[in-house]
Amino acid sequence: MNEEEIRETIKDFKYYTEESKRLYASLGSDAGIDIFSMNIGSSKREDQIRRKLEKMDRKMTALLRALEEAGLTDKEWSIVDCAMEGMSPRKIAPKFNCSHHTIQRHFDSACGKLAEYLDAG
């Protein structure tokens, strides 16, 4: 993933999580169960859902692995965590007693570190 994809994945993380739950439910499966190894039919719709889930899972897994290993500062980690919850820099700023510009700089720094980590790996 490049830096822009990382930004989008972080910003869409909440959506991905909610969408994954919805897609798992549409297959009649609880979230967290490995539906890829289950034999639940092979309708065209189910195959489309599986492919979409696999793509989302790959992005989320890569992002979470990078978050754990990329060497983010505590503040960067906290800001990324808030962004993953769907918060904008303006909504995050009061939590850290700083401007949204400062939050954006920390977010940019975190995304750069994540991109660098993923490029190296």
UniProtKB/TrEMBL annotation:
According to the record, the signal peptide region is none
Keywords noted in UniProt: Transcription, Transcription regulation
* Gene3D superfamilies referenced in this protein's UniProt entry, alphabetically: Winged helix-like DNA-binding domain superfamily/Winged helix DNA-binding domain (1.10.10.10)
Q: Where is the HTH luxR-type domain?
A: 72-114
Q: Does the keyword Transcription apply?
A: yes
Pfam families per UniProt: GerE
Q: Name one GO biological process term.
A: regulation of DNA-templated transcription
User: Under what name is this protein listed?
Assistant: HTH luxR-type domain-containing protein
| Organism encoding this protein | Planococcus antarcticus DSM 14505
Q: What is the lineage of its organism?
A: Bacteria, Bacillati, Bacillota, Bacilli, Bacillales
